[in-house]
Design brief:
The complex is a heterodimer of chains A (196) and B (535). Chain A has 2 domains: 8-47; 72-185, Ctag/Cox11 (Ctag/Cox11 (Pfam 04442), Sandwich). In chain A, 20% of the residues lie in helices and 34% in strands. Chain A is built from 1 helix and 9 strands. Chain B is mostly helical and 535 residues long. Chain B has one domain (22-518): Cytochrome C Oxidase, Chain A (Up-down Bundle). Helix content of chain B is 65%, strand content 0%. Chain B contains 15 helices and no strands. The longest helix of chain B has 36 residues, at 74-109. Chain B is globular. Classes of the chains: A alpha+beta (196), B mainly alpha (535). The interface between A and B is large, with 49 and 49 residues.
Chain lengths: 196, 535
């Protein structure tokens, strides 16, 4: 009926090759899905868009000038994930600082449970875009903390606000959420240095 | 467009209907590689799931009939909303559209079958097991998945019930099925077109599925990766979404919606294709602006990849991203508008007749556009801050999914059923079905806009007194909507059994166009073994 007959064998080969190719593309997209994880982390870090603060200590240079003309109010907020049986509070709720000066604050933690627990605090800053200007020299969130039943401690944070903080930011909130990681298989320090 | 087609072939082909034993009858369906058989299987699975998930919707609406009612427990209510959403999306709309693709694409492009018939068999037969796995969660210890169909981490990771793992594997199976189906459709359209059937001669339905298949190929693997991350977070100590381990729950939402937004176009693009077949037939005109209809589908598909964060406006993403995603989302209204205007122009000065498929298509045109407008409202960031997670969102996506995708599927079934089984459906029952569905649909979902604007959150089993009136109306509408689907079921069964006694001609419709109407009704088991001639 048609002028040129269809070459069925050639068509079958073409179909086979195309199906393989599309199958590979699907695998490629699976890989891309996983690739989105580091891409996300790198983007958040590069643009400082997720309210995350530095995970490694940043040295404070005492020689750097302090911007005495500006005041920034910083509030401290805490929460406990899943209502874990700890007390966890900032010792000071709010401080006023100059950009460039070093500040030391502390958080109180007490294990109210009847067994030893290991915890990890995760910081977050609002407004998110200001997070990269809050630089910590020392923080209890760099490592995990462990307390025996009924034990308590004060956990220090040493930080400064850098002088590049955008002009419109006058207030910041630093929040910590405490997670129970006693039973977690891979603790955060196991992959210390990982970008996130 | 096409000339006569012969069905006689040199080889002896298997013909069904002569199986003697029950085993042989079952084996016919289990081992079938015929695109028509597989299309039928997909459609029946979808029909069954439609009633399962619809039943869940009625339980939800019964619970919400009055405040404080305890018809079902709040825990069970959460399982109902979750499973209703999951099954309607993955178990009803997707299989129905794939079933239509299986039946119609080879018929429309003049191919004897799909390019990879055995793969086709496998893609279907994964699905019943996926849904057995998903629905079995009701019968095992602990609650069924109860965190909403979007299964956000950490609700589904740290706090998810043990049955979450069943859901994860069910999604893996569905994803695998969709990917194989997509590969098959692409391979069919690229290689199996009859000589002379160039790309720009293909029916819009085939085009819409061609594009959709690429969307599926791009997003289902990402969803598979996402649920695999959930699985390893739950059991193997990874911390993709766990803040305590250095992960980020927000990352889940990015991954999910990177899949989720193109997914809604997977649900609607083939519906666009269906409407583009039906409106010309009953307007007795060619489709207006064929090329632009095709281009619009391509543009929508491309844009669908860059709008996902409009589901996340209130998660604290930066202003610049909010602006980008807001404008990108609103741009989608342009190609969609092209389609809506072209459909309207197709009907303009046509000699219209209003058989059931046409009624559903016009219903689609009105109500889908309406749902599109509420979508535009949701796209505006400051407005979305108010609307998000309210009943306004529920109203919006039911208008685009129920009176969008589902209406198109119903229109398609009425439109092609005479071709599939050789008998006309009962027009009177079809009209009853349409009008009751439309009535029920609008009574149910229209008032939900007001509930949402008044501040009623979605996914709650109880609500303050002031929302009572509208909720009652919605529940009454839901029952009209739900029970009128029984008319549909009855009509379909009656037609298949030939109880209407009206044989369908090969052309079926006066204004028919396309290759599928050149084969006899019912379509023979093997068609186009010799390719048709295309002018």
């Amino acid at each position: 009926m048609n002028n040129q007959p269809i070459d069925y064998a050639a068509r079958q080969r073409k179909i086979r090759r195309l199906a393989m190719l599309l199958g590979l593309a699907a695998f490629g997209m699976l890989g891309f899905g996983y690739l989105l994880v580091p891409i996300y982390n790198v983007m958040c870090k590069a643009f400082g868009i997720n309210g995350k603060t530095n995970e490694q200590p940043i040295a404070y240079n005492a020689a750097d000038p302090v911007d005495k003309s500006r005041w920034v109010t910083i509030e401290f907020v805490t929460s406990r994930n899943n209502q874990m049986p700890w007390e966890f509070n900032p010792l000071v709720k709010k401080i006023r600082v100059h950009p460039g000066e070093i500040n030391r604050i502390a958080f109180y933690a007490k294990n109210d449970s009847d067994h030893e627990m290991m915890v990890q605090a995760i910081p977050s800053v609002t407004p998110g875009l200001a997070a990269k200007h809050l630089k910590k020299t020392e923080c209890f969130c760099f490592t995990q903390q462990s307390l025996k039943a009924g034990e308590s401690m004060d956990m220090p944070v040493l930080f400064h606000i850098d002088r590049d903080l955008p002009k419109e930011v006058n207030e910041m909130t630093l929040s910590y959420t405490m997670f129970d990681i006693t039973h977690m298989k891979h603790k955060k320090n196991a992959n210390a240095g990982k970008i996130s | 467009m096409a000339e006569v087609i012969t069905h006689e072939t040199e080889h002896h082909h298997y013909e069904p209907g002569h199986e003697k034993t029950l085993g042989a009858k079952i084996a016919r369906w289990v081992f079938t590689t015929n695109h028509k058989d597989i299309g039928t299987l997909y459609l029946w699975l979808s029909f069954l799931m439609f009633f399962v998930a619809g039943g869940m919707a009625l339980l939800i609406r019964t619970e919400l009939f009055m405040p404080g009612a305890r018809f079902i427990s709040p825990e069970f209510f959460n399982q109902m909303t979750t499973m209703h959403g999951l099954i309607m999306v993955f178990g009803v709309v997707m299989p129905a559209l794939t079933g239509l693709a299986n039946w119609q694409i080879p018929l429309m492009i003049g191919a004897p079958d799909m390019a990879l018939p055995r793969l086709n068999n496998w893609s279907f037969w994964l699905l019943p097991f996926a849904f057995l796995l998903l629905i079995s969660t009701f019968f095992i210890e602990g609650p069924a998945p109860n965190f909403g169909w979007t299964f956000y981490a950490p609700l589904s990771t740290q706090y998810g019930p043990p049955s979450t793992d069943f859901m994860i594997f069910a999604i893996h199976l569905m994803g695998l099925s969709s990917i194989m189906g997509a590969i098959n459709i692409i391979a069919t359209i690229i290689n199996m077109r009859a000589p002379g059937m160039s790309y720009m001669k293909m029916p819009v339905f085939a085009w819409s599925w061609f594009i959709t298949a690429f969307l599926l190929l791009g997003i289902m693997p990402v969803l598979a990766g996402c649920v695999t991350m959930m699985l390893t977070d739950r059991h193997f100590g990874t911390s993709f979404f766990n803040a305590a381990g250095g992960g980020d729950p927000l990352l889940f939402q990015h991954l999910f919606w990177f899949f989720g937004h193109p997914e809604v176009y997977v649900l609607i693009l083939p519906a666009f294709g269906i409407i583009s077949e039906i409106l010309p037939t009953f307007s007795r005109k060619k489709i207006f602006g064929y090329r632009f209809m095709v281009y619009a589908i391509v543009v929508i598909a491309v844009l669908s990849y860059v709008v996902w964060a409009h589901h996340m406006f209130t998660t604290g993403i930066p202003l610049a991203s909010e602006l980008f995603f807001m404008y990108a989302t609103m741009i989608i209204a342009v190609p969609t508008g092209v389609k809506v205007f072209n459909w309207t122009a197709t009907m303009f000065k046509g000699s219209l007749s209003f058989e059931t498929p046409m009624l559903f298509a016009i219903g689609f045109l009105f109500m889908f556009t309406f749902g599109g407008f509420s979508g535009l409202m949701l796209a505006i960031v400051p407005a979305d801050v108010q609307y998000q997670d309210s009943y306004f969102v529920v109203a919006h996506f039911h208008y685009v999914l129920m009176s969008g995708s589902v209406y198109a599927i119903m229109a398609a079934i009425y439109y092609w059923l005479p071709k599939w089984c050789g008998y006309m459906y009962c027009e009177k029952l079809g009209k009853w079905h349409f009008w009751l569905t439309t009535l029920g649909m609008n009574i149910t979902f229209f008032v939900m806009h007001f509930l949402g604007l008044a501040g009623m959150p979605r996914r709650i089993p109880d609500y303050p007194l002031q929302f009572e009136d509208f909720n009652r109306i919605a529940t009454i509408g839901a029952f009209i909507l739900g029970f009128s689907q029984l008319i549909f079921l009855y009509n379909v069964i009656k037609t298949i059994r030939g109880k209407n006694r009206v044989k369908a001609s090969a052309e079926v419709w006066e204004g028919h166009h396309g290759l599928e109407w050149t084969v006899a009704s019912p379509a023979p088991y093997h068609t186009f073994s010799t390719p048709p001639k295309i002018d």
